[in-house]
Predict the structure.
Amino acid sequence: MEKFRQDYIADVQVRLAGAKNSQLAMAAPLESSGQPSSQPKPTSNTTPIDRKKADTKNSNQKVGLVTSLLSVGAIKPAIAILSKFRWLVDANTEIADLMLRIMKVSISPLYESLTVTKRPSSGFTRPRARFGSSGVVQPSPLKSMLTLWAPNPPSTSTTEFVFFFPDWLDRVPLCSSLDDLGDVIEPLLHFIGLHIYRDPLFATKFLRLGKLHLLSTLPVDGSGKKPAGEPDPEDPVRRLWLAILRRYILPALSMTRGNAVLTVEAWNLARQYSTSVRWSLYGEWKNNRSHPELRIRDVQANRESKGILRRLSHNTIDALVGPVAKMVHSNPCIFFGNAITQVMAYDNLATVVIQSLRYSTSMGFDVLVFIALDALANPNKQRVKDDGVNSSDWLQSASHTTPMILLRSSASL
């Protein structure tokens, strides 16, 4: 198993180096003449080394055993293996998908009982009725086909895939109350960590239940409707969801690619805490590089945000407002950190940055206020010039732009 772990660490280092390298520097040199290159082109994108790595990964029997156990609902023996080899989930994300499949079933009865849900529709999974020469023609029923894959593959126009062992549902512990979320779901989240981002639907439902759980800790008046006073910060429920936000939700947001719905639900949970607690979360989120996947995503987001800011101007606001919103949804600390640095160097850029935030969420503006005040409080920057009288250029730019940022953020919050 140590060899498999070293292979995963080496793969992380390769991806991290690839994320740091410029794509333009990696491009092949242009030919000076129109003559075709004499070097033969590779016939396949997969090298023998890549095929060897894939064969080595597929030969890991413990991974196959864990996925098989989770597929049939045998949670305890699978967790016993994962407790010994915690890195298996990071190297094999199909394990995280199976854990999310179990947790989605676990919270389904609780979510349906506490929230108003619409009647599920077939959507795009089943064909609809069509008009023919003889009137409305109903589609033919889908043909069921057994499959060994879990989660089930998406249905086609004629076939619906059914897992071969339907009794796996009987082995999943179900949540009957909000307190069960801390006893059933949180221990399972401890094994997949930030990989909760791989199922945004489950993450959204989980955050909505978390909001209801936090609202139950608010003290109410005699009528039992309006909140009266501040909640106890040492309440076990509030400490539980604060730890969930810090360990799983915020790192998972960094791995997404601009999911506004998930960001809004995370904000509905984070806003239940005071400003000082939220900003402490943002400070840890900003400097969190503990997970190898986070380090890779940090380099990618840093390059993407600098590329957006490099092209941002009064003429390109409408074209870049979408990419800016996606970056703010997933990595607001990285984007606003680079944006504030640019604004302090070029004060005329502040108006452009503020105008490009038209699609940002309330959580994005809350992070923006934190990043702006954190930049102003940086003790390593000099407040005055060398003459000791005039303020530094960066401080003058910040003094002109920070009130604009605070005003825009307070209006959104």
Q: What stands out?
A: The first strand starts at residue 130 and ends at 132. Residues 93-114 form the longest helix (22 residues). Residues 300-412 form one domain.
